[in-house]
Specification:
Blueprint (H helix, E strand, L loop, with lengths): L1 H21 L3 E2 L11 H7 L13 H12 L1 E3 L4 E2 L10 E7 L2 E6 L4 E6 L12 H4 L2 E8 L17 H20 L3 E5 L4 H8 L5 E10 L4
Antiparallel strand pairs: 1-6, 2-3, 4-5, 4-7, 5-6, 7-9, 8-9
Helix pairs in contact: 2-5, 3-5
Length: about 220
């Protein structure tokens, strides 16, 4: 009897710990797929913005942003809002927030917390990167393309991944133009410092980063 009570107690503790860990994930609301400006108007207003307020985006804005970037728009086929060469879908979208680093899971439309450290200052070399509310970091998981840890990864191996990243980043630009937000894509990223802080494997390669926020007047 004592053994059963002890095992039940251990199970309860583990369940509490598990719930505590999973509760750090962010469940995003259903994206609004019908709003926004007409496409031609969004294209006309698309621009890079490098001056942001410190105001955070709402959960709805983050939901719409991430779905527009790399969400699932054809659930029956598990296909996304941006194209992917051979439909490998090797690009992962990480989200750096003041509350920590998250990985966007398009299938369940949630942000899975990687850790609770604010690493926005490592997502780029310009000052605004550290204070803007949100930085997206695009990572090519070369393991999905057959590259094992320790394998040499050349620029030629990343050709399609760079193109796929560009497709996603342009979706973000158009969403931001449509939603009166600002963003800028950046190649100046201290990858050698950022990758370890993100816990990336050797066959995961940072391609680009993109800063999003509310434009300063």
């Amino acid at each position: 009897m004592k053994k059963k009570i002890f095992l039940a107690f251990c199970f309860l503790i583990l369940n509490i710990i598990s719930n505590k860990i999973s509760s750090q994930d962010i469940t995003l609301p259903t994206p609004d797929r019908t709003g926004g400006k007409p496409l031609m108007q969004a294209l006309n207003e698309r621009q890079s913005v490098r001056t942001f307020t410190k105001d955070n985006l709402t959960l709805q804005q983050m939901s719409d942003l991430l779905w527009a970037a790399w969400g699932i728009n054809r659930p029956d086929q598990k296909k996304r809002t941006a194209p992917s060469a051979r439909n490998v879908q090797e690009i992962d979208v990480y989200v750096a927030l003041p509350t920590g680093l998250y990985l966007y899971d398009g299938s369940s439309h949630i942000l899975k917390q990687i850790h609770n450290r604010d690493i926005r200052n490592l997502c780029g070399t310009q000052d605004f990167v550290a204070t803007a509310p949100l930085d997206l970091v695009y990572v090519a998981d070369m393991g999905k393309l057959g590259k094992k840890e320790g394998d040499e990864i050349k620029d030629s191996d990343l050709l399609w991944s760079y193109a796929n990243t560009g497709f996603i980043a342009q979706n973000v630009y158009l969403y931001c133009a449509s939603a009166n937000l600002g963003c800028v894509i950046r190649g100046m990223v201290p990858k050698e410092k950022l990758a370890p802080e993100m816990g990336l494997r050797k066959n995961q390669v940072i391609t680009l980063s993109q800063t999003i926020g509310i434009p300063a007047k």
